[in-house]
Structure prediction request, 316 residues.
Amino acid sequence: MTIVADDNEKMAADRRLVAQLAEPAAELFERHLRVAKTWYPFEDVPFSNAADFSRDEFDEGAYPLSQGVRSALVVNLLTEDNLPYYTHTLLSPVDDDHPLSEWSRRWTAEEWRHSAAMRDWILATRALDPWALEDDRMVQMSTGVVPYSKTVADMLAYVSFQELATQVAHRNVSMSLDRTLRGKKIMSQIAGDEGLHHAFYRDLVAAAIEREPTMMLVSISHILRSFKMPGQGIPGFADHERIIAAAGIFDAEQYLHQVVEPTLSAWGVDELEGLDDDGERARSRIHRTVSALERVVKVMGSPGTPSGADRRTDEP
Prediction:
């Protein structure tokens, strides 16, 4: 009976928070539509470079890339493919006529554009083994593994950090590519979109903190302690993660300084006043987690352990 009561309380809290966020979600969605740039995923793909595939003759080295960039492309693309599972999780307590539903559909459409552009570019340039990539995609999407959030507050906090971390990884991949086959431009455009997605969730969490400060600080403290990039369902994800970190594309230092610190600063966590005891305890846990991350970065140096993010956000 206690478990049922706890579940009912969480559902009620989710519904209350979702209702409170209707107005700011609508305003932030309108802002996103004003500043988002329209681009077409096929325009910059060098299709003239493409050729038929023969498994016996395929040479992955035909387009030389470092192993770090290869791993980042695999993880970034397959993560974009898996977005519908995030949409399902986010929308479970949201009514169809809520602004978050409309936002989520737009978000999903934009993320699919990323997937289409990356995959077409990879196929046209022969940057990755397409058979291995498709096998990995089938495994990942068949299992549907994504980081699970117990509440809407957890989900919003997680996606705020994750979207900025993804932007960082995309931008760093872009910086590793040359302009010849237009991969740099494609990855830069994707990173720009991710920055806008981060801005939406970051500012929605700020609105949620105004309305439910304790609930949100508890969720932020929990997500910071348990944060993992989306991709656990990708075969060999742990190895990819280590390779990506070692290449400096996404590591602990970037996660701390380019994702965690600017996001917490934007939320004004240290300046919040009038918190109850639970809220103060959550803020203390946030401080302890940040201190632990600082120690990890100091010990590991750079590149560090997997968990990082980018140089800036493309904010509206």
Notes: The chain has one domain: 9-43+66-300. Residues 302-316 have pLDDT under 50 and may be disordered.
